[in-house]
Amino acid sequence: MKIIIAGGDGFCGWPTALYFSQKGHEVAIVDNLIRREWDKELGTQSLTPIASMEDRLSVWQAQSGKSIKFYLGDLQDYDFVEHVFQDFEPEAFVHYAEQRSAPYSMIDREHAVFTQVNNVVGNLNVLFAMKKITPDCHLIKLGTMGEYGTPNIDIEEGYIRIEHNGREDVLPYPKQPFSFYHLSKVHDSHNIMFACKAWGIRATDLNQGVVYGLWTDETKLDERLYNRIDFDGVFGTALNRFCIQAAVGHDLTVYGKGGQTRAFLDIRDTLQCVELAALNPADAGEFRVFNQFTEQFSVLELAQRVQAVAKQMGIEANIAHLQNPRVEKEEHYYHAAHTKLLDLGLKPHLLSDELIQGLIETASRYQDRVSRDVIRPSATWR
Amino acid sequence: MKIIIAGGDGFCGWPTALYFSQKGHEVAIVDNLIRREWDKELGTQSLTPIASMEDRLSVWQAQSGKSIKFYLGDLQDYDFVEHVFQDFEPEAFVHYAEQRSAPYSMIDREHAVFTQVNNVVGNLNVLFAMKKITPDCHLIKLGTMGEYGTPNIDIEEGYIRIEHNGREDVLPYPKQPFSFYHLSKVHDSHNIMFACKAWGIRATDLNQGVVYGLWTDETKLDERLYNRIDFDGVFGTALNRFCIQAAVGHDLTVYGKGGQTRAFLDIRDTLQCVELAALNPADAGEFRVFNQFTEQFSVLELAQRVQAVAKQMGIEANIAHLQNPRVEKEEHYYHAAHTKLLDLGLKPHLLSDELIQGLIETASRYQDRVSRDVIRPSATWR
């Protein structure tokens, strides 16, 4: 399959590109490398050293004998997007190329506006180019479980059957996103749903949970193939951040009570899920929604789990309940459906102590790269 | 009350500004006058001659003895927005200042992107300026009934109680917008809902139906106070467009079967509704949603109604069923709640033959201003 991985320099995109390449697909990465610039802006870096895209791709070719094409550019630049579609003629377009941090979107007005314009316009450009050049191409769009918020009823996969005043319909599941970033994904979802209906685009919206883990079969082959992993308060996410905090002797930073329950998955399952979506494309005109996660945990549960594994390793990790910088419920009902990818054959990697131990060991190995100044949350929702 | 009418040069904004001024409120208009540029772009003009903003305001001062302040600028320019809030310190901000035509948003990629960026960024800027400078100010935002689409269940006002798997919650009503324009309003609604929750902003989202009519007590006082009214296939809307078509001997252009049912209201009721919202503000942190319309009609019903009134006036108007340029259901269930504004005291002006006759007469008077080349729909959804 000819498949584009947009955002292929990022945490999910890079291992996805290698995974599809390894499987024998013809892969192209589209990226403007802006994720590296955000590190500079925030005074942080990946825990793991990451090679330049040029080095990444040449090492991959040497290791695997397979080449990955690279298009350097910004999805906000429509001429660039159209060129990519014309030149590569993809059968599937995996769209990770968005600003994906909720705290980054909440830094200030400029970051909120940047996040929404970057994400919404980039996605619109992809839809228009797809309509014009490869109308049969399958858009595999990364959404987020955070689009749903924390309703007091079960979360379904994209749609819900509603009975009301003696009639019924299946309607898009109501959205209550958590941040300007999560809002941008809701905007994207609505735009894509419309493009499917109006133009017959085929699309799968993957409402992904929080991704943890680091290593995949491909990225661990050579240090120059290593994936990035974030420890800072802006891009670092629960679990990965806790493991790094434990390794460097920092408190595990739980925001408020920690009863916030979210959906999680192993990065290896991200690759599996995207592959399952690609191999089983949506129908023409179908806006298909999968909830892409394997387990749900409260933030405090995860901190305690990391604390316990650290203890077995001889590390005393303290859990600190910071004043919550976010506006969110700290105790709430949470139950989200996630059967559609299982039905397609997903074999989950459930969270294991071994994975946590491995992350702590990796973090210990690279602890000199961790700046403690950027670990605590800096952006506030208020 | 100190009240800003953003978009105060437009079809709804101008009469709203005069109405509040007449009632003794301190009014400021914010507008970049871009609506006049879109006329030039599309090769059309208002049926009625419209004076410059300078003339409009000086005639109003001479007629009423009341002055309206005018801020010339674009809501996408945050420094301008912040200046307006600091200088005027509004208690209410009525936000009409968006690109409001569905066909305009569907012309091509550039117009789709323009519409979403213009509307979403302008609205974000208003929210951020309000938070910073006048956190108690009441945002009265014009949404559209088109956010809901045409679900097979009753449409409620913003929220719906859902029972599901033995639990229940009141959630935002699911949205299925019709065009990139309608999508921009859905994006705005989600952004405002979040700002209310995170920052305690008070907001009322007025999901308005299609507005018909032209005259208000204030705009008819002097030709230089006249409101604009559109006949072209891009900005002209059902009913008003049909009346003008009847007057100039053009077919009444019904798209497809004409069974598309929509919500409608008289422009005088727009003013009443905005006034009721302003005098009864939302609570701090409340995202209040009103469905702002008085009656629902199918497009064909309206064409037939205009045809009948025209016949009484001695005009034979033919109804032409054009190939539908839009992707929409032409026969569907439609029943939308609209009690909240009635509960606040709205006294509807229901559609009358007299109003239709008056519009046809006005159109006859200005028929030389109607270019027949721009009446048919030019933008397609496909």
UniProtKB/TrEMBL annotation, chains A, B:
CDD domains: SQD1_like_SDR_e. It holds the Pfam family Epimerase. Residues 3-291 form the NAD-dependent epimerase/dehydratase domain. Belongs to the NAD(P)-dependent epimerase/dehydratase family. This is NAD-dependent epimerase/dehydratase family protein. It comes from Alicyclobacillus fodiniaquatilis.
